[in-house]
Amino acid sequence: MPEPILQKLTNHIYWMPPAPPDRPSLCAVVGERFTLMLDAASSDAHARLFLDQLAQNGIASPRLIALTHWHWDHVFGAAEIGVPIIAHRLTAQELAIQAAYEWTDSTLDQRVLDGLEIAFCADNIKLELPEPRNVRIPLPNILLDDTLDIDLGGVTCHLRHVGGDHAADSVVAYIPEDRLLFLGDSLYDAVYTPVRHYTTARLFPLLNKLLAFEAQLYIEGHTDKMLTRAEIEAIAAKMRLAGDLIAELGTDEAAILAAARLRTGAEPDEDMTYFVKGLIAGI
Ligand SMILES: [Zn+2]
């Protein structure tokens, strides 16, 4: 498994990019008083890799974790970090359910059959944590409903609940001193569903909330490059255009893409096509 390398992004923020099988972005926000970890890694091994690379860079280990949402790949390393966890109230509720499960291959397979788990996650859990696996899911210690601000000393982190299609509990972390927004998986589509999809009812309010931050840099959960404001605005514009055209013209994908071509004067790219398909699937 290739090991991602910790990168210094800004004055206070270090980023470990996503990696196979489904390891998400992790960040350390480093203040004068303490370090905050954004998301908690997929496993003990992933958590240990992050802690080791912090140590190699002379950075203090995290004293707090903030979770973006309840999905396993963002959570299963939390016990190895071993510090208090901040999470949304809905995240805590879902983690209490997850913590009561058994995590053998056979119980995972059964949950997929029962519709309680998706094959994509079960497959990646088996890759990240081969049997015999010991899954430890600590419950969050500090809960937020809407917002929570953390003063790390010389730098602050504003946690905001934004919701969206991917997970109702999605929280983003904004570091105003560095104008960076840690998005978690909030901009991705709904995955815990028979068909991956977006809905304009959840997506459009989410876009408004995300673009209201005066961020210039954006880190996503499973995107291996940092995004600029212009790139996020371009993604949002495609999502909005896809939603608007479907509202005007209905669910004929070819007609929507033809209208998008006319409206923008450009061939719809892979992203535009994905958003159109996803929003049609969500109707
Ligand atoms: Zn997720």
Summarize, please.
The chain is of the alpha/beta class and 283 residues long. It is 37% helix and 19% strand. It has helices at residues 44-56, 78-81, 89-99, 105-113, 119-128, 200-212, 229-249, 253-264, 270-281; strands at residues 7-8, 13-16, 26-30, 35-38, 62-66, 85-88, 142-144, 147-151, 156-161, 171-175, 180-184, 217-220, 227-228.
Domain count: the total is 2
Low-confidence stretches: none
**CATH fold-level name of the largest domain:** Metallo-beta-lactamase, Chain A
Largest sheet: 7 strands, mixed
> Order of strands side by side in the largest beta sheet?
1-2-3-4-5-6-7
Give the percentage of residues in beta strands: 15-25%
Number of helices: 9
> What's the total count of β strands?
13
User: Which range best describes the helical content: under 10%, 10-25%, 25-40%, 40-55%, 55-70% or over 70%?
Assistant: 25-40%
What is the alpha-carbon Rg in Å?
Answer: 19 Å
The CATH homologous superfamily of the largest domain? Ribonuclease Z/Hydroxyacylglutathione hydrolase-like
CATH class of the largest domain: Alpha Beta
Q: List the secondary-structure elements in sequence, H or E.
A: EEEEHEHEHHHEEEEEHEEHHH
Average pLDDT reading: 97
List each distinct ligand once.
zinc ion
What characteristic shape results from the CA principal axes?
globular
Report the structural category.
alpha/beta
